[in-house]
Amino acid sequence: MSDDTSEPSHHARPRRKPARAEDPAPRTVGFVLVPDFPLMAYTAAVEPLRAANTLSGCELYRWWHAAPGGGVVQASNGLGILTDVAVGARASADRVFVCAGGNPAEFDDPSLFAWLRGLARHGATLGGISGGPYLLARAGLLSGRRCTLHWEHVPAFEERYPEIEVVRSLFEIQGDRITCSGGIAALDLMLDLIGRDHGAGLAAGVSDWFLHNQIREGLSPQRMDLRQRFGVRDPRLLRVLAAMEANLEAPVPRVALADLARVSVRQLERLFREGLGRGLHRHYLHLRLDRAHQLGRESALSRAEIAAATGFANADELARAERRRHRQAEA
């Protein structure tokens, strides 16, 4: 651990009222930003704290930033955030959130992981946003816990950490561990925490400040339902689509899918062409290839392991399917 004991800078707050004797002690929130972190998720987490300070007229929250290597850390869009706490420094915090995007499976920084474990031992609640839960798991901080993370990272995470229960919710608060799927779900998470800390009235005021007219609960789903995503209404087609997405490792035979829809295979093929503009087999194949691409980008699995996880007999069969799709896209 470093001997750096410098206090993190406390950000100026607009329109603050004079301190009152009854003002609560401010909570300190740390943000550990991993290079290429998602700016939207970070902003959705930090801005509600600023708004809570402004609307309450006192400093309810203060925050600091850290990043591997220190200095200025760049978001995925190139915007830089200046850090004010060094990784390894003694830093006080009530909550610390790790915000990561890109490919968190490839990130490895033992010194950062050790520092996070130290913060947890000293009583800080540890949280992860977007791909941040992946790094908490790498640090051994999610053992025996339930967590969520961005849906794009879930397949690779489940392959690597089968012992950790993953729920596809907006956020999960489990005692001294908090995980969030990212994006604007970070706003809903912070509104929940503000409500717990200072009451539902202030949380509602912050939500209204950001034109967020419905505070979503943590267990709300991350993604739009199949009806919205694919623009289909036929319940038979929706049942089959759900079965396909739930069975990529061991694809369901066409006859079984038709039985699920209570139609013949020929009728099911027609439903797919009319509703989605492509046949049943091609749609299922594209789902499996998309998952294979995700695993290849975000996990350390071998090609053979990725093939097995997406219903292909071997890596060669997967490669042939990828080449065919590429040729079709160019045609």
UniProtKB/TrEMBL annotation:
For this protein, the record's InterPro entries field holds: Class_I_gatase-like, DJ-1/PfpI, HTH_AraC, INH-QAR
PROSITE patterns according to UniProt: HTH_ARAC_FAMILY_2
Superkingdom of the organism of origin: Bacteria
Alphabetized SUPFAM superfamilies for the sequence: Class I glutamine amidotransferase-like
Where does the HTH araC/xylS-type domain start and stop, copy by copy?
238-331
Which GO MF terms does the UniProt record name? Answer: DNA-binding transcription factor activity; sequence-specific DNA binding
Chain residue ranges for the region called Disordered: 1-24
What PANTHER family has UniProt attached to this entry? ARAC-FAMILY TRANSCRIPTIONAL REGULATOR (PTHR43130), HTH-TYPE TRANSCRIPTIONAL REGULATOR RV1931C (PTHR43130:SF3)
Task: Specify the protein name.
Answer: Transcriptional regulator, AraC family
**Which species is this record about?**
Methylorubrum extorquens (strain CM4 / NCIMB 13688)
